[in-house]
Amino acid sequence: MNEQHAHPEELLPFYVNGSLDADEHQQVENHVAACGQCRDEIALLQSLQTRVAEIDAHTAPGEFGWQRLQRDMRKPARQTRRSWMKMALAASLLVVVVQSGWLLQLSLSQNDYIPAGAHLQQGVILQVAFRPQATASQIHQLLDAIDAEIVGGPGAAGVYRIRLHNRSEGDASQPLQRLNASTEVVEYVVRE
Description:
This protein is of the alpha+beta class.
């Protein structure tokens, strides 16, 4: 590549601050001798370097922030207290509005209240003790035959709670008779 046209732009800032090794320094020197564009760039970089060096430590960007903080700290406490009070009042009003909305929604929806587990209370609930020798398959077949499911148990006495599906209180006689007749699987049955 021709050195006249390959501008070492990435090396120029390091050339200006004097951090190039000897070979790179010589390469830039040779190029700058013949390239006015790079000489202008070096002049610009040198002027920037001079301006940055002249910046007083008191006017550095970090110093400006520190001065602003000090100024704000010198403001009268009354003015700071007022702004704090305004923010506290706004936050309090927001809490009151949000809570009022929740209470209104709660009062409107109280008629729709459904307790947890309410679906388990639908239907007739029976307490059943299965015989120890009854197999899981036999129990499953019996429950399917009377359209029931286990909803709790076994308790400490080995008693299960079963729910009869789609049955009202007066319509539980047939499943009760079937359970009582299944003496090989059921030890006893009582209605809750």
